[in-house]
Design goal:
- With 193 residues, the chain is mostly helical.
- It has one domain.
- The chain contains 7 helices and no strands.
- Helix 1 packs parallel to helix 6, helix 2 crosses helix 6 and helix 2 runs antiparallel to helix 7.
- It is globular.
- The chain starts with a helix and ends with a helix.
């Protein structure tokens, strides 16, 4: 198997792994407020997150920027907690607000920068003394994104089935999911403080 394929698989598996719970919770907190007909807005948000974490993943892996890993590991669950708390104020009509979308786009981009710093530590440990890191970096990032697309599509699929099948209002669904996310991410914040 080629180096490119190996890193692509590593990136893919890194997301679809219980050890990536923090990343999965963040994606869930972003995705749970959307239905299929909002897929375009969700795609823009996920793209903002991807651009943010791709940028810092590349810069930190290339050692062009450095941050305290302890702070990064603390800030990651803070982004999850913040996103879930923001969802508690969710009303289905708010999704249509362009101003809210711009604000959320910027926040999700910033949160992506933080998450990318977290991935960079993992990727650096995998690369070791690799002579050229651009190909492994690209492959790892593509693997992350492919897995992320699967996660987002799965969340949309299952949430829409639950909402349509059981006639649950999206607002209540978002409150329950966000409450669960808060319950799971708060201990992470406290543990990493």
């Amino acid at each position: 198997m080629s180096t490119f394929n190996s890193y692509l698989i590593l990136g893919f598996q890194h997301i679809l792994n219980i050890q990536a719970l923090d990343h999965l919770l963040f994606i869930l907190s972003i995705t749970c407020i959307y239905k299929f007909y909002d897929a375009k807005k969700l795609l823009l948000l996920i793209t903002a997150f991807t651009l943010g974490h791709s940028l810092t993943l590349a810069l930190a892996t290339l050692k062009w920027i450095e941050f305290s890993q302890n702070w990064v590991e603390f800030l990651i669950p803070c982004t999850i907690l913040f996103s879930a708390f923001a969802n508690l104020n969710f009303k289905e009509t708010k999704i249509k607000s362009t101003k809210l979308s711009r604000r959320k786009f910027i926040l999700v981009s910033i949160f992506g920068l933080i998450h990318g710093l977290g991935f960079s530590n993992y990727l650096q440990s995998l690369l070791g003394k690799e002579s050229s890191i651009l190909s492994p970096l690209l492959a790892f990032n593509i693997g992350l994104e492919l897995a992320q697309i699967i996660v987002v599509a799965s969340i949309l699929f299952f949430s829409n089935i639950l909402i349509e099948l059981f006639k649950i209002k999206l607002t209540y669904f978002v409150l329950v999911i966000s409450g669960i996310i808060i319950g799971l991410s708060l201990p992470m914040v406290l543990e990493r403080w």
